[in-house]
Amino acid sequence: MDKIAYFVQKSNTNATAVAIFGAIGAVVVAAKALSFLKVLVDVFLRSGINVKKYDAGNGGWAVITGASDGIGKEFAFQLASKKLNIVLVSRTESKLKVLAEELEQKYNIETKVHAMDFAKGDDKDYQALQALVAPINVTVLVNNVGTNHEIPTPFEQETDKIVKDIVEININAAMKVTKIIVPHMVARKKGLIINLGSFAGLVPTPYLSVYSGSKAFLSSWSQAIGAELAPKGITVQNVNTYFVVSAMSKIRRATMLIPMPKPYVRSVLGQIGISGGASTPYTSTPFYSHAIANWLIDNTFGRAFWVKQNYNIQVDIRKRALRKREREAAAAAKSQ
User: Fold this and answer.
1) Is the dihedral of CA 14, 20, 22, 28 positive or negative?
2) Where is the active site (predicted)?
């Protein structure tokens, strides 16, 4: 009889344990489902802060770095269409002047241009930019300028120049330009800072180690200054970006996961202050397919898995890039 009672008690205990773990599992699944539902609501239903808040149509100015091509150029068009005046900052003055003239004629706004090579890190260039923006009401800053490795490369084989350029352009330029602009925003208790981040900063990317590290810095720095500046009326948003068709990405054809600059920038400006797929503070992943990918990275398999995936992808890209270089070198030698 005692044995029967023991087995009954043990069976009840096991059933209770199964019920408890089942309940915990159900709660975890429900929480995951709700978090995914929030992502869908964010990217498909919610609207972010209206750009009019930043004096669009009322004398406000946007400063855009890396403005002559790609995503930066698209930011210039879309912010100008919202009646913000535009300061275009990039390396090639002739491109900037052509773009400035087009923006003024199309949208009836004012523009200023400042040509500088961010890779040089020349203090005189930054001083000239500071003087240029001193008399105007800068309410929006888009830190878009960036550079990457030419091809995926092991860190010990990368050239000193490429390492230096990535650090100077992706890290130092963002800090220096922001340091110039922020006092204007603090004085008016109004401002928006958009930093163009990357999935490479979300998940470390072997063979793009310096670029990946620079974007991880941008993410962490954006969170820190975002917390500092929020009480002063300034919104900081690190935009977590997967691939976009551009010269830097070297991708020419759009897909569901890789948009053209126009719809991508539209999603960024349409969801200011909304996290989208991002779980990191002061961060947004606004484009719908990027948001879903971001959620999957945060909620499935673990980071070790995703780092390994990045490793395999970059190894394959490197092999193909090296074969292409060999073919080009052989063709060049044959033509001589």
Assistant:
1) negative
2) 211
Whole-prediction pTM value? 0.92
Which residues participate in catalysis according to the annotation? 211
- Give the start-to-end residue ranges of the domains of the chain: 44-302
- Binding region for substrate: 198
Answer for the pair 263, 245: CB distance below 8 angstroms, yes or no. no
**Cβ atoms within 10 Å, residue 247:** 10
Residues comprising the binding site? 198
- Give first-to-last CA distance, the chain, whole Å: 98
Helix axes 173-188, 123-133, angle to 10 degrees: 20
Is there a contact between 199 and 294 (Cβ–Cβ < 8 Å)?
Answer: yes
As beta bridge partners, residue 284 has 239
Give the integer Cα–Cα distance in Å for 7 and 292. 48
Q: Express each pLDDT in 37-76 by its tens digit.
A: 999 999 999 999 999 999 999 999 999 999 999 999 999 9
Structural class in CATH, domain 44-302: alpha beta
Q: Tell me, what's the pLDDT at 12?
A: 61
Q: Beta-carbon neighbour count of residue 148 at 10 Å?
A: 22
